[in-house]
Amino acid sequence: MSVMPASEFAAGFLSRFQVSAFRLETLDFYLADNEREPYRRFLAGQNHDPEWRRPWQRMVRGIYESGREIGRVHVVPEELTDYLRFELTRAYPASVDAGEDVRILTRKEADRIGLPHGEDYWLFDDERSAILRYTPDGEFVGVELATSDRVGQHVAWRQAAQAAAVPLYDYLEAATLAPAR
Predict the structure, then answer these.
(1) Residue 36 forms part of a structural domain
(2) Is residue 64 one of the residues assigned to a domain?
(3) Do 130 and 13 touch, CB atoms closer than 8 A?
(4) CB of 161 closer than 8 Å to CB of 110
(5) Backbone phi, then psi, for 80, in 5-degree steps?
(6) Which parts of the sequence belong to the DUF6879 domain (predicted)?
(7) Which residues of 101-115 are buried (b: 16+ CB within 10 A; e: fewer)?
(8) % of the chain exceeding 70 in pLDDT
């Protein structure tokens, strides 16, 4: 597998797909620069300022309006971490409202259907995939472009994950979590 720096991936790889982009998320915590202040505010119980999500929301809306699809499934533990409560209620609603298909799957169900632990990836057009690499504390460091046999595994995992996961707002309602609007 070839390794691509995080900056190169972020600079354009995500936009180069024709039909669909899918992400599987398996970690309980991600350390992203654009989330540091909103997460601090969340932990402090301060009001939500949605401005930090606008760049992602614009990109998702552009994808959706072009007729392409973007979606993700996030595998979560039964007991949510503070970070996951933040992500589910402060980050994902803006994505869904822009057209992203965000679904949630419990780790117990993910284990039952054979999904991986700790292997996050983006899958593009069911033809290419990029395995995301993180430090132990959740900081994104780069990607490995997957071999063709790995792409096939990612397609199978996507199909299983999407079939078993529930849409974000259904999950939030069942978990009695209110999204920030």
Answers:
(1) yes
(2) yes
(3) yes
(4) yes
(5) -70, 140
(6) 9-172
(7) bbbbbbeebbeeeeb
(8) 91
pLDDT tens digit sequence for 132-169: 999 888 988 888 888 888 999 999 999 999 999 999 99
Total structural domains within the chain? 1
Q: Beta strands 128-134 and 20-25: pairing type?
A: unpaired
Domain membership of residue 152 (yes or no) is yes
Residue 72, domain extent = 2-174
* CATH code: domain of residue 168: 3.30.870.10
In sequence order, what are the residues at sequence separation of 6 or more whose Cβ sits closer than 8 angstroms to the Cβ of residue 62?
A: none
Residues of the chain with pLDDT under 50: none
153 within a domain of the structure (yes/no): yes
Token pair, residue 162, equals 């999407």
